[in-house]
Amino acid sequence: MTDRPVTGGPADTEPGVERGFPATATVPEGDVLMPDPGTEPDPAPPETAGATFTQRGDRIFRGLATGSGVFIVALIGAVGVFLLIQAIPSVLADKDNFLLGRNFDTGDPANLRFGILDLLLVTVEVSVFALIIAMPIGLGIALFLTQYAPRRLAKPFGYLVDLLAAVPSIIFGLWGILVLAPVIEPFAQWLQAHLGWIPVFAPGNSGIAGATVFTAGIVLAVMILPIITSITREVFERTPRTLIEAALALGATKWEVVQTTVLPFGRSGYVSASMLGLGRALGETIALTVILAGVQSAFSGSLFDGGATFASKIALAFAELNNNLSAGAYIAAGLVLFVLTFAVNAFARALVARSGAKA
Amino acid sequence: MSASIDLHEPAVGPTFTGISGTRKAKNGLATVLVTLAFLIAVIPLVWVLYTVISQGLIVVLRPGWWTQSLNGLLGRQIGGGAYHAIYGTLAQGLIAGIIATPLGIMVAIYLVEYGAKTRLARATTFMVDILTGVPSIVAALFIYAVWIAIFGLDRSAFAVSLALVLLMVPVVVRSSEEMLRIVPDDLREASYALGVPKWKTIMRVVIPTALSGMLTGVALALARIMGETAPVLILVAYAPFINFNIFDGNMASLPLMMAVERSNPTQAGADRIWGAAITLILIITVFQLIAAVLSRVTAPKTK
To answer: Contact at 8 Å (CB) between A147 and A254?
Structure first.
């Protein structure tokens, strides 16, 4: 643990005189939205004699705090490194092409044949499909809660949407396959019959009715809705009052106010919120494990195919694994998922930071 | 006569012209669509809750649901309870909470009190953001890779707790950080002026002021991790009986019980699934209520 961070004040502190002078000067407190790391007191007190207990106490405490920070940074690195360590032997032993192979056969550790192409395709298709459904609805909800809903009701309504995030994903999964799937099945049939010539709506290979990417995507859309809504809402709420009032003064209708002030102001926040939702969708495990039917044939790209995502594949198979080489194959898939979500999230966070700086 | 009417006509047109039909229509359409979007989001919420309650309520009202396990019962035998799974869920969640809370709070203290604008602080903030987005299955795989594949230890409930720590820490850090930031600097300065060292100021002044908000964050984080299924699926095996030992043996938990009973096609299986679902929702609701009460009772003293 390096307890030697770059900050001004060294750890040695005394029950001394002028502590805290430099503390406040900068920024007024209470700014919760934008974490501004300029607020903390960091006095550099003059060293006086004695008071070794205080010195030690401060040093230990600072060491603990800094160590925790270092630990978090190291943790993410460790996740990548340890997954890599476990994955490499299996990928080297892989008799198939890891990136382009389409089957995932790990039954015999001496003869591993696995590739992630199908997993990647299903993961991306189901997540993007969920995003396409959730993005416009999420935008609508955010607008409704910030601009349209009566002031007094906006808060409880917002709480209602947040409640969606509190329902455990396995319950969403069970609801999706047992309750929702039979209800939307006629619609799915209709799509396949009438729009089947479009590859995405082609009749699929899922043997079980409803156990398709289609159902999974809809359930996933419901699950990422609260994520998209909550961040978008936050950004929309920060639209400068003056802009809105100026638009109103020019005689704009409500929709025109939204169009000319709220949307341009919150666009990047909305996009990054959607990316965070995408990150969540890519990694969602149990709901998809429950919904998607395992199939033998390769993924055709149709919404009505079964299949497995990275996460659901791992979850399905992992409980039975008992040797490190087979497990490594799934860990390799998990590593790809980690890299994928890392990239999406990092991109989204960078966008959030930018939109925040503008606000 | 007509001349006098001319006199009454305004010399210039009215300042405010009416809103044209298309603009009105667009405005109305937007209002309808936006309201509709909200209603669409409420449908699945109500539907899911209705499903869970209508299927599960009878089950949890049976005597024994809260006090018995499924020990010795066959798959098709109706009866028994979720006592073992409730214990598992609470134990795994609380152990994770015991580890994640101090860690998360220390990270938040570092970020707010010590880190300033250092590169390490910025890296930490970024990594906390990334950790928020790490899929639960990846967290579970990581623990598997370290705990089971490298250390050679058995699958156990404690491994689950470790994976849950990974998922809980970022939530605790975020909420604690926000709470620490709204502690007024005046308090810190007053304490410094009295000659109190920094660490004691943090322990005795800053943390007590921010405590209620921090506890709320912890309760919410607990509610979140207790519903996680991926870690329990990978890191511990299901047991239909009670096991109090965190470090050894199989242990049930409510999400795991639902996942396992999925392969039970009988009515008893369906009962157990929905019973466990409503129990899980109840537990999560209780923790959220605790969070709400905590935040209300000990509202921030800074306002």
So the answer is: yes
- CB–CB contact A164 B178 (8 Å): no
Across the interface, whether the CB atoms of B114 and A62 are under 8 A apart is answered yes
Task: Output the pLDDT for position A22.
Answer: 42
Residues A29 and B222: their CA atoms lie apart, in Å, by 28
**CA nearest neighbour of A66 among B215, B124, B207:** B124
CB hemisphere CA count around A305 (13 angstroms): 22
Taking CB atoms and an 8 Å limit, are B114 and A334 in contact across chains? Answer: no
Q: How many CB pairs under 8 A join A and B?
A: 349
Nearest to A65 among B106, B129, B130 (CB): B106
CATH of the domain at A147: 1.10.3720.10
The per-residue pLDDT of chain A, averaged, comes to 81
Q: What is the pLDDT of residues A35-50, one digit of tens each?
A: 444 444 444 444 444 4
Contact A121/A101 with Cβ under 8 angstroms? no
B235: closest CA among B258, B251, B223, B259? B251
H or E segment at B8?
helix B2-8
Q: Does one domain contain both A118 and A86?
A: no
Q: Are residue A155 and residue A43 in the same domain, yes or no?
A: no
Mean pLDDT of chain B: 88
Task: Tell which A residues from 180 to 219 touch B, by Cβ distance under 8 Å.
Answer: 180
Number of domains observed in the structure of chain A:
2
What is this model's ipTM?
A: 0.86
Backbone phi and psi for residue A306, each to the nearest 5 degrees, phi listed first? -90, -150
CA R_g for chain B = 28
